[in-house]
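The pair is quoted verbatim as follows:
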Amino acid sequence: MPLVRKRKFEREEDGPGTQTVHIFHLPGHKADVKLSVFDGLEIHVHSVLLKLHSAFFRRFLDLHNKDGEGKNTGSFRYEWATVYDDDGSWSLFDARNIKSNNANSNWMPRKLRDTREAHELAFMNFIGTFYGKSWAIKNTEALQLVTELADYYCALPVVSKSIHGSLFLSPVFCKSIFFGPTRTLLDLSLQLRSPEIFRECMICLVGRWQHSAHQYWTESQPEMSYNPKLTSPKLNELAIKLHNQICAKVSKTQQ
């Protein structure tokens, strides 16, 4: 998702009656940023942490206020609201540059992947990593949503640091790795630089014994017995090598 795209500001047609407000605390600092995620969640955060952990906010938070003459947004120095792209994706945009007379301001995207609540929770967990908070990973889809946010807002390092602690809070997710979408998780582990998830995914991927592999595996032609066809040639080569090593050890014990 590119940083600069043509967007439309839209709200839900039948939005919730009340809005949930979540305030993140930082000793010695007052929250000076209001982030409105859809119409149901309002998050108060600190610009100093947004700029510290996100290259996106370092670049764009003060883009329209370089001379200190930007429009005041009430008690907050910055106020960002949700905008939607035509493909159904969403992001935050400086509210000072959103036109209030947009004719389509009461529409919601038709192609929003997953539920609105799932996106709100993902964004809460994403912002929480800026404050050193770990989070319970519900499933692969939840991890993917947070990873996409980290990628778009250029904050992968801080989210990556949270994964180790988050896995301890996610026993159900850890148990489900073997039965989940291994290839998707493998890609996420590479993006997040998570050795724990990468190791478990590789074990699941290359450790599954197949009768055809045992019957036709030969040391002289190992490539004929197993090929996961991963998108990364180097990773695919590593997977084949590890699988063949397992096959060789198992075959040796059965001789």
Remarks:
- The radius of gyration is 23 Å.
